[in-house]
Specification:
With 235 residues, the chain is α+β, with helices and mostly antiparallel strands. The protein has 2 domains: 4-81, no CATH class; 96-234. The model is unreliable at 16-30, 33-39, 44-64 and 76-83 (pLDDT under 50). The longest helix has 26 residues, at 4-29. It has 3 helices and 13 strands, in the order H-E-E-H-H-E-E-E-E-E-E-E-E-E-E-E. The chain is globular, with a radius of gyration of 35 Å.
Length: 235
């Protein structure tokens, strides 16, 4: 015949047996935990599995019933996956660049426009084609793609030769611009030709001319928006 106290001791031993077994396994196998399925897993892996919801979601996680705060939309992934480019969005510390082509000659100008994506402080990827336009005599066209560096290719301006004007804002000192010339120029393929108006820094109002081509920097923001404004004039 057993007493009430003996029954309580026996019940306590039965309750402690799984716990003692777990402690024994943990001590013997260096941090291994016996799971409900009879597998020996490291205790840290058990916690990871619980966070991921791989234990049937009994401890929450992404795939469990109890998400424990994971029902809110994650926002940091959007920043991580966002495609990088240099497009300014309105006024800022550095102005974007616009280029106006002015036709003061007697023949139409066949123009192809380009921009470059900023890859470093003053480094850029190669030119990206961004549309074409024919500018009639006594007309002009302002190319304003909201980029720091832009250019225009004009076919057969100097007899059979093409010209390519490339202008940009820079981090330090005055913005820079220049014009190259050559046969069958192809900026997208890095075929720029030879210097026609040497690349240099331009202050506001400064102009450089060679033959019938003038490259000038006009007053900043004078044509709307926060821009470094350039003009390429073909006479």
């Amino acid at each position: 015949m057993t007493t009430s106290s003996e029954n309580k001791v026996q019940e306590w031993n039965n309750e402690e047996q799984p716990l003692n077994r777990r402690r024994l396994l943990t001590g013997t196998f260096g941090g291994l935990v016996l799971t409900a399925g009879g597998l020996l897993l490291p205790d840290w892996l058990l916690e990871v599995e619980a966070r991921e919801g791989a234990l049937g979601g009994s401890k929450g996680g992404r795939r469990g019933k109890d998400h424990k705060g994971r029902n809110k939309k994650r926002k940091h992934g959007d920043k991580k996956d966002k495609k990088k480019d240099d497009a300014p969005r309105g006024a800022g510390l550095f102005r974007a660049t616009s280029l106006t082509v002015v036709n003061k000659g007697v023949n139409p100008l066949d123009c192809s426009f380009f921009y470059r994506i900023k890859t470093g402080l003053d480094d850029y990827a190669g030119p990206t084609a961004n549309g074409t336009r024919t500018i009639q005599p006594n007309e002009s066209y302002r190319y304003n793609p909201d980029r720091y560096r832009v250019g225009v290719l004009i076919k057969q301006v100097l007899g059979p030769a093409d010209i390519y004007a490339d202008v940009r804002n820079v981090s330090f000192f005055f913005p820079r611009g220049g014009v190259t010339q050559g046969a069958s120029l192809d900026p997208a393929a890095s075929k720029f030709g030879d210097a026609f108006i040497a690349e240099q820094n331009f202050s506001e109002g400064e102009a450089q001319q060679n033959q019938n081509v003038v490259l000038q920097r006009v007053k900043d923001d004078s044509k709307g928006g926060s821009r470094i404004e350039w003009e390429l004039i073909v006479r």
